[in-house]
Amino acid sequence: MSPSKLELNPSVKNILLLDSDGRRVAAKYFSDDWPTNSAKEAFEKLVFNKTQKTNARTEAEITMFENNIIVYKFVQDLHFFVTGSDDENELILSSVLQAFFDSVGLLLRGNVDKKEALENLDLILLRIDEIIDAGIILETTPNTIAGKVGSNSTESGAPLSEQTLSQALASAREHLARSLLK
Amino acid sequence: MAQPLIKKDDDRDDEDNYSPFLGIEKGAVLQEARVFNDPQLDARRCSQVITKLLYLLNQGETFTKVEATEVFFSVTKLFQSRDLGLRRMVYLIIKELSPSADEVIIVTSSLMKDMNSKTDMYRANAIRVLCRITDGTLLTQIERYLKQAIVDKNPVVASAALVSGIHLLQTNPEIVKRWSNEVQEAVQSRAALVQFHALALLHQIRQNDRLAVSKLVTSLTRGSVRSPLAQCLLIRYTSQVIRESGNITQSGERPFYDFLESCLRHKSEMVIFEAAKAITDLNGVTSRELTPAITVLQLFLSSSKPVLRFAAVRTLNKVAMTHPMAVTNCNIDMESLISDQNRSIATLAITTLLKTGNESSVDRLMKQITNFMSDIADEFKIVVVEAIRSLCLKFPLKYRSLMNFLSNILREEGGFDYKKAIVDSIVILIRDIPDAKESGLLHLCEFIEDCEFTYLSTQILHFLGIEGPKTLDPSKYIRYIYNRVHLENATVRASAVSTLAKFGASVDGLKPRIFVLLRRCLFDSDDEVRDRATLYLNTLGGDTEIDNDAKDFLFGSLDIPLVNLETSLKKYEPSEEAFDINLVPKEVKSQPLAEKKAPGKKPTGGLGAPPSGPPSTVDSYEKQLLSIPEFANFGKPFKSSAPVELTEAETEYAVNVVKHIFDTHVVFQYNCTNTIPEQLLEDVIVVVDASEAEEFSQVISKPLRSLPYDSPGQIFVAFEKPEGLPTSGKFSNILRFIVKEVDPTSGEAEDDGVEDEYQLEDLEVVAADYILKVGVSNFRNAWESMDPDSERVDEYGLGPREGLSEAVNTVITLLGMQPCEGTEVVPPNSRSHTCLLSGVFIGGVKVLVRLSFGLDGAKDVAMKLAVRSDDVTVSDAIHEIVASG
Q: Best residue in B29, B45, B54, B83 to probe A by mutation, most A CBs within 10 Å?
């Protein structure tokens, strides 16, 4: 995709979710700026080191280096990042970050930490997939994103008409088991 | 690459680092993926395996072609399951595996079935997956469904189709363009994101049709866009239309400006900011247009959100480079940002203040910055150093505190780039502010006492060798230099020896003592150091006067472009004949081309780093001119203009001209480039018709022997003119040459050529060409020190103008003088303005001009012009220029 043709379109270069040691929990790159995994890891390390000491827990913070703008927000041991080019509207990037942050928050029901995130990695990856499609902003309303992904992958949210009887029974059993465990 | 993940996690087996993926391995997961082939699918288990695969990919693991194909084929089996969650994962993994064209066929039918499913989620995702992996041939088959999907009542489906359309437009434009009607319908959608995606696609379909884009913008700016993101897009399209439509209409209104301005009152901050940014980026934005944008940005500065503060201060920082006065209103808010938690914001605030501050606030600002410097990173410090350098050039009287600041931070810890930025700044200040020389050199001397960077030490030693001997007491530098000979590595020692020799050559009084020192260097352990010492002792040797050759050898820089020297040396074959440096061509070949390329280069931005000033081309021009024997008796050129284009962009031959003004002559340097690969031009001359420039008479014309493709050459034409007068005139130019066809394959030209000519645009020599832009540090002092009798005052009516700012700029351009103390910027909405200019008139006469502008009635501008100069006739000449301009 040639960037010159898309330059007017708001675009995101990557979405990152790192842990408190800077290791990757989930990451999705939409730009060719980092062609190899080691380039990606180097970028993540740099981003992490530059932002580590800041307090981005109440409000999203922002920084800029290597002609990229990075907005970020932390909660517990999770660090959320969204990167865009330096001529991008900072507030658009920030709205993407907020969408990512809030939809993960909704998913983990306030219990946002690395352990929960890894246990729900499938759903986090799906959320990223619903927020950005190849660099283009697809959706930024957290509730809509959550709705599109479904509350949990194996808890079937399909309409009954598309479920077999046994599947319906299985999911009912699971619901029951879950409610008992709580 | 394929290092097993288990190793990474080995040493962190404590509770906190529990991970469901602990010990996961590619081989094992690939084995597990066999469950996809089970006749009785366990949806939950399959989902988990896919998650594991995605985890591995996400951690940077790669699958071989065979592995990927195998996984892909088994994944396709999962379409049999009707579990919604599993299907969603299947879509995701297919996109991650990015199957090859021949594999895609396997899933095509499943995906096409999903595209027609009743479940919205299936439709939306099947479209996205299919469009991602498909090629053009399949597209025609599914086109019908895609068109339907674009106008689907479910916004998720519509968005999926539209975004896929945006991607497909890159590869299959002719197909996507057929969807125009549907996309246009989708622009009217009530769903915010659908509108945004539809608008993006519609614009991209029409982007090459300027009229259509303009129509689109016109209709949408009337207000049917609801989504903030779509509104941001519309603002970008609008700015593009404004940029391409070029000029302001006759009524002085910029088309669509009202729309941008109205977006400043939008309820979404994203839109407000986009509009403010668009306004500040307008070509030749006026102060009046800027004001509302600056006002909203100022409000953002005190926002509680760091992102908003950052966005605002970054934009204002950029505005401050071109319109410093417009930003001064925000200074108080900026100052409070110096203590901002976010250091990026603080740095941007400081550099903005450095640009907008006036002379009186410098000291206070420096105090604040000193506290600030200790806790920011090197890269921010460099930005601050650069800002301080330009501030010092702007207010030379403040050099003392700024130089102190620089020398203090030079002593602190820092990396190479940071130290280099400081050293460069001090060197520039020494060069441009004579008063700063002595203290600056001493700071540099102290720095090399304890400098860990060889590169910087040698640079400083070289610089000392040039500047040191010209100071009042050169001897005091010797100690610093000779210390280097004892304490440093060989590279630094060698350059210290050269520096000592330069002192010896320039200052006779020091010569005997320098000799003692140089002789000691003969016992150095390094051969380069010994060689240099021997060489210098011999060239400077004896008690006789140092002859010019020796001086040339020591100080004369090579007036041959190094590239040319290199090529000549490579061509030289050892023979009886010695290499003759005089045969090396002195023409700077690639220079005009490089100059043309420069403006197109995207500014790297950095943290709002100021664009580096234009390289000093005058020096290189001067050398080039002096190397042409015909012009040798003209003296030194008084001024060389910036290149003026004589051809339109992208024509067959690109020609620009540089006007060199001498005391009694004018030389036009035509820089020509031949842009046709199939042609070779020979005997190229410029025929200049000076019938509209009566006082000029042509004396020399220096043609160009040959002008091959894409290799610029220069033609010179010289005119005689009355001495010391600002003679103006208009010249028409024709390029005349012999064209020879070139065989594109062999690159050889045919023998026979045809004579041809090419009309160039006219060229004018105007009064401004005779005035050098030379600033003064304190205008008031300079003004008062001039003879009041030389003052000439008169009043002029400038007639109706766009505004004061435009009138001020017109007069500045007319006179070609240097505006002082930032007075070229007119504050918004002011009714009167005073502008101070300074310059040097041909013959080296200093001129100061005080312009007072006033708005009279609606748009009429009146101007009072007061001139003082060292020569009364020059004062009169300035008035004549204004009166006739």
A: B83
